[in-house]
């Protein structure tokens, strides 16, 4: 979109939310480190100066590829949805976590992907400590102090690490009856190691960092049931254990947002198991040269790229160049590396030939995330919050806001 | 509460919310200048170091003055409510705005007093501009761009001024179809002047500042009806006008929160029309020397003090001294003055013999509000937001978050 600022085109950005969420930091909202507006920028503010962009606050619900029109749901003024004509359509509706067919688990284990999800999780985590404070039955109290994070990708690892730090460093002096140091944080992962996208050596370092922080990584374990009061996991040998836990957070699996299905059906193109729409090497839909799709909702031919921000950003810039007529080659992903933080001063990084862990990786993580956060104001506010947290072990944004 | 930190007592703070809201800045959340967590401090963080304070996240719902017990509603762990024994009870449950018997207006004109209220109003204001952007009918678009603020006390004046600035300075370049400069902000006040607590001369200055900002103050007008699409006002001569407006904000009247009624009934003491509980000169309930009540939920004998933060703060410190045995005189309010801001560089101030307006009053307003905002971190974050807003005319926290 911003890549089109000097191209003589008119762009309409359709989004059902009025902000761009910097998703890699959503877990910090969920754990009370950051405030929602510090990681979300109003779309209109982002495109204030780009006069060829209009923003429409609406949800895309249908597409007619033959008529070259996009159908959107109800408009902000309450009017029924309308139809937008396009010359070129670019679809980037992203993905959600997948509950592996157990949609009923969503109620007990919200996903950490959207801002409402992060605020919901924040309220649940904080309420669990409040509940532990008033609970007198030791077994019940232990269940309130048990947190299960499902999925040990970067989001799961970061969330588990932050909850452990919250319980160990930020909260102990806040409570009088509950001993938050008794908190158990379990990180459940089906694969045999955490951070599967990293080298086994860095995975192993992350595993030990998690343990040092007080997180119990349950690798080789699969979630088989989630209720309001427990999470049941099955180990590789098939044994099932029911863990009493009042708080579960979901960060596993991946499936595309619903519009991917709409698009694939309209175009008659294939999707994979995760619902990814197949696109051509230039990110166009086969048979529809005026339609591009990108990000973690697509696979390029048979190739699935990592579902991370750098892929989507490079693809966005690529499509902007194609539209402007400045690009004839197929899309080629330049892997800049992988970063994940585990907690205060702990991170792992793979950048080109460099493998780093501990403090240097953590500083790199901080820098990269600050650079990519949109808006100078947000960068400064987040930096300030981080400095405070680092200095005081505190968490400034610990509000239970109403659902 | 903090006045009791060196007194050998055990304090239980019962609150249904886990944060202390700095209410004087709630309107800045409603208008997108500040983020919720910047004006709300987690109670547990506030009392972290004060070991004689326990925080209980629950709602007070009943009291048995003979048995010296307080009844609270459901607990965070889901248990049914319980009963707390007390030696001394201090009640400070505050007030709400009153809809003058028209509770149905609340749906269309939310009150600006709580954090959920402020977030709701923020979403409504931002959605109204989004609606104006897609609306093609000129009359309907005008109704989306018309905002009615009811009540010209400090909150009403500040809110009206901020909406006008938002429309005039922050938003014009954000929209492509709607001309936000066409926004009308009406400030309806039954009395014959704005900011009735100030001297007539400062009222008049505030009136003209509002006009300069683009606000239309309708003094001597009373709201007689509010619907989803209009606000009807009646002037002193009795003529009724129906103003097409899609957004209304309520900041008028005053009534105590429901626990004041519970307490007055239990004690058999009188309340006034606004529901204020009558207390004795030492803020005790007549016949119940172990029960204090304070803040804008009480009147001291027949005397109603202004419903502002300094009164409640002085009363809180007074009660702490009485409990500690360090105070024998009746409560005496020291009026430190009145402050209200109208917009960027515009405010009015009455401090002792000083009457100020314009830039000096505004700087004073900024300083006082920063000093009283709880928490060093929040002060810096708010200062930073304000510097940005001042420099760029922008508003950083413009998220429409889900209800």
Describe this structure in words.
Two copies of one chain form a homodimer. Chain A has 403 residues and is of the alpha/beta class. The first copy, chain A, has two domains: 2-97 and 255-323, 3-Layer(bba) Sandwich (FAD/NAD(P)-binding domain); 105-252, 3-Layer(bba) Sandwich (FAD/NAD(P)-binding domain), CATH 3.50.50.100. In chain A, 32% of the residues lie in helices and 25% in strands. The first copy, chain A, is built from eleven helices and 24 strands. Chain A has helices at residues 26-30, 43-46, 105-108, 115-134, 138-144, 154-170, 200-213, 258-267, 309-323, 359-372, 376-392, and strands at 11-15, 19-21, 40-42, 53-57, 60-64, 69-72, 83-85, 89-91, 95-96, 146-150, 184-189, 215-219, 221-226, 230-235, 240-244, 247-250, 255-256, 277-279, 284-285, 288-293, 298-300, 338-343, 346-351, 354-357. In chain A, the strands form nine sheets. Chain A has a four-stranded parallel β-sheet with strand order 12-11-10-16. In chain A, strands 5-6-7 form a three-stranded antiparallel β-sheet. A three-stranded mixed β-sheet of chain A has the order 8-20-19, with no helix packed on it. In chain A, a hairpin with a 2-residue loop joins strand 23 (346-351) and strand 24 (354-357). In chain A, helix 4 packs antiparallel against helix 5. Chain A is globular and about 65 Å long. Chain A starts with 10 loop residues before the first strand and ends in an 11-residue tail after the last helix.
